[in-house]
Design the sequence.
């Protein structure tokens, strides 16, 4: 119960000081308005950052899904690509460049 008496005493002395200074209410109102504006700005800023973070996570997940899909497709194409490379190398060894020994004059 002593703390209730202490709060009442402190509160009454603070109210008495505020009544003795007539312009203090205007200053407290201005400071409160500024504090409300700053707190709303910070709230909106944190909300925006959080939403952007969630968007980044979604973008990364979509990229990972696409990469996994592409890996599966590319693994399927690997034998075909290797066969095409070996066939190209074999066909290049067999054929020699054709040389035309006939000169054309106009």
Sequence:
């Amino acid at each position: 119960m002593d703390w209730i008496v202490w709060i009442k005493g402190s509160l009454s002395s603070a109210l008495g000081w505020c009544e003795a200074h007539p312009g203090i209410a205007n200053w407290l109102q201005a400071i409160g308005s500024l504090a409300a504006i700053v707190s709303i700005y910070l709230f909106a800023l944190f909300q925006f950052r959080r939403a952007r973070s969630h968007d980044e996570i979604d973008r990364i997940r979509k990229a990972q899904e696409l990469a996994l899909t592409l890996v599966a497709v590319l693994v399927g194409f690997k034998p075909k690509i290797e066969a095409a490379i070996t066939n190209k190398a074999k066909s290049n060894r067999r054929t020699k460049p054709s040389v035309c020994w006939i000169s054309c004059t106009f």
Summary: The chain has a mean pLDDT of 82. Helices lie at 2-20, 24-94.
